[in-house]
Amino acid sequence: MTRSFSKLFVLTILLTLTAFFYSSCKSKKTIIPKKDAPNETPMAVNVPKPLERENPLDSDNDGIVDEKDNCPDEKGLASNDGCPKVDARAFNYKNIQFEFNSSVLKTSSYPVLDAIAMQMKNSVETRFQLNGHSSAEGSDERNMMLSVDRANAVKAYLVNNGIKNSNLITKGYGEAKPIVANTTETNKALNRRVEIKGF
Fold it and tell me: What mean pLDDT is reported for the chain?
């Protein structure tokens, strides 16, 4: 009986050890990370749009926002970049002066003519007369030709600045209409001029 018990005891120990070794030597399962499917579309990310002002600033309430309004403190027209339309006849245009015996524009006249051209563009239906004049030196024929050439020099400059040719009329008066007496050099210089009139 003791012998049978010993055999049974040994057999039980052997089975227990076998089961222990078998479970510890079992190969562990390798976990392979799942790859994205090749045709899978990446998820779209919503990027928030920059906030826009709901009510852009319009200081003069003319319907043109300040950032697009050239005259933000004065009601104007969209066709005139936010500035009011001005009748050219209301402007007192500065005379364009010339050197003695010359119809060449002075460089100092360019800024004046640029400003006049801008004003003319605000009143596209208005026509302008460019009246050329001279001082009293020289012959009547020469002074008449000078006055016409001076008026044409002003016209050419304005046309090159976008004013319609048909809106500009030139006329020469020679020495017939001085604004001051031709008695001093200063006065004579004032008479060598082109006057611009809107009508």
Answer: 81
